Automatic annotation (TrEMBL):
Belongs to the bacterial solute-binding protein SsuA/TauA family. This is ABC transporter substrate-binding protein. It comes from Streptomyces chisholmiae. Residues 1-31 form the signal peptide. SUPFAM superfamilies: Periplasmic binding protein-like II. It is found in: Periplasm. Pfam families: NMT1. Keywords: Signal.
Length: 337
């Protein structure tokens, strides 16, 4: 039988997911106007240069490097596109903008998109935005503790406080799975929400016992004495799509050629990035607050051409287990074929 504390935590996670979805729906309705009808976009209409402009929304993190390089190298232009990147819209609140046709594509972690789809939001994952490297010890996300804490492995965080940037996204799943994979009780971990930039100080001062964090904040935490003890991305799935570029079902239906051109251009951008890591590291400081010195040393996300269906199925199972959703989502509808 589930303990009372575990049951309470699961109800809290379910409530957080429900509130999050309600906020997303509210945001969509507000953005659409009183009648709920979204304004139609003109993404398929070429500009004076013959290129179709598409707007992208994403947090200013290193996974955007191939996008910037592709624009500079003319890769998007070769596919008939010009991209405009909005880094002011957080990944956590971009769904309303996409569904209300305010931006054409945005990045979202795969768990968030699975929950949104299960709640009836018509999001479509087009192509990965970031992926695990697949190598424990050499990934861009990790479960960390203070080096003087005496904690040396994930299962020792059972019953302790661990920070994640959201209780209902892939970070929470990764933190819990790192503990579970090491034989610990994931339901006994007390997860608290904390923005990634605050993690290094929170870990070093003992505000939390551990934290799930990604680059460049992983390197920043290590610089303040934190040590990685778990690599939850590799525990979640062998080939893990962490986040995806997504759009709305309506945009796919109205702009099929633009969607396919965008996907093809992003895949070509990834091929270029894989062959030019020095350029990737050099461009990161131009659109982030990451210094050139840090950009030279951080672990860079993996880049994949396909959203992993196997990973999506596993993340959906975790979301069901953790009661973020109450029914299996339509993954065929979520992942663009």
């Amino acid at each position: 039988m589930m303990s009372t504390s575990a049951s309470t935590r699961r109800r809290a996670r379910r409530a957080a997911a429900t509130v999050g979805t309600a906020l997303l729906l509210t945001g969509v309705l507000v953005a659409c106007g009183d009648d709920g009808a979204a304004t139609s976009g003109d993404s398929d209409a070429p500009g004076g240069d013959g290129l179709t402009t598409v707007t992208l929304a994403s947090a200013p993190l290193s996974h955007l490097a191939p996008i910037h390089l592709a624009q500079e190298q003319g890769i998007f232009a070769e596919h008939g596109l010009n991209v405009e990147v909005d880094t002011e819209s957080s990944d956590l609140v971009s769904v309303p903008s996409v569904l209300a046709d305010r931006v054409d594509f945005a990045t979202g972690d795969l768990t968030t998109l699975i929950v949104a789809r299960a709640q009836g939001l018509d999001v479509k994952a087009v192509v990965p935005a970031s992926a695990s490297t697949g190598v424990a010890g050499e990934d861009y996300g990790a479960l960390v503790v203070d080096g003087d804490s005496g904690i040396t492995r994930p299962r020792e965080l059972a019953g302790k406080t661990v920070a994640v940037n959201s209780l209902t996204n892939i970070a929470a799943a990764a933190a819990r799975e790192a503990v579970s994979a090491d034989g610990g009780d994931p339901d006994s971990v007390r997860l608290v929400e904390l923005p990634f930039p605050q993690v290094p100080a929170a870990v070093s001062t003992g505000q939390v016992d551990g934290a799930w964090v990604v680059e460049p904040f992983l390197s920043a935490a290590e610089a303040e004495g934190a040590v990685p003890i778990g690599w939850g991305f590799t525990d979640l799935a062998e080939d893990l799509t962490v986040s995806a570029w997504y759009t709305s079902g309506a945009f796919v239906e109205d702009n099929p050629e633009t969607v396919e051109a965008f996907r093809a251009a992003v895949r070509e951008a990834y091929a270029y990035a894989r062959e030019h890591e020095d350029e990737v590291r050099a461009v990161i400081p131009t659109f982030t607050e990451i210094s050139p010195e840090v950009a030279e040393s951080i672990t860079i996300t993996g880049w994949r051409d396909e959203v992993s269906r196997v990973a999506a199925e596993k993340l959906a199972d975790y979301a069901l287990r953790d009661e973020l959703i109450d029914a299996a989502p339509d993954l065929d509808g979520l992942i663009l074929p």
